[in-house]
Amino acid sequence: MTQAYTGMRKGISLVEMMIAIILFAALATVGLKYTKNYINTDLQAMKARVAAAMDQGSQLTQAYKLYTTQYGTPTSINDFNATETKVMTDLPAIITEMSTLGWDLNTSTGVGSGYAFTMKLDGNTTALQPAQYCQIWNKEFNSSVELNVSGTEDAGTIDAPNYAPATGLSYCFGTHTDGYTVIVKLP
Predict the structure, then answer these.
(1) DSSP code at position 19
(2) DSSP track, 68-86
(3) What is the number of structural domains in the chain?
(4) Other beta carbons within 10 Å of 28
(5) Average pLDDT of each block of 10 consecutive residues along the chain (187 residues)?
(6) How far apart are the first and last CA of the chain?
(7) pTM given for the model
(8) Domain-embedded: residue 13
(9) Which of 103, 113, 122 lies closest to 55 in space, CA to CA?
(10) Does 7 map to a domain?
(11) Is the residue at 93 inside a domain?
(12) Does 10 reside within a domain?
């Protein structure tokens, strides 16, 4: 004896499963598009570049201390990885979004000992981004600074930075018209 067909079945068909997958994918795509509007991915990428540059500044400071202990005062950043005085295997990579030239050893800053690592913020950026990088840099070293990355704010001068932390060892200075520079002072 065979059972009569009652119109009820168990499970779903392959066509129904494909329709459900397509609908879930469409909803996820729309949801992701609107979620990305709430997260400023450009600002997060800028913060990551600033963090990388801060790490580079720290590495250069350590290389400077090691070099001066072993060989005396360097004349340029290239002394750190010269064949006879190699204290760094490679110089820090240039973060092109921030600077076209990268770090430089400045021997005549006029601040403290006069020696500092500097990086001119002139990278492959829009007109507003150097000011934003400068604001992010100063905020990282001095949490009392308001993070204003929407304007072209004055960040002071090399000898009297508006946003220098209590130690004054690292800050960004400059104006929108003259350009911005990151400085890591050496003791």
Answers:
(1) H
(2) HHHT---SSGGGGG-GGG-
(3) 1
(4) 10
(5) 67 88 92 72 85 91 90 89 86 89 81 77 73 82 63 63 55 79 81
(6) 98
(7) 0.70
(8) no
(9) 103
(10) no
(11) yes
(12) no
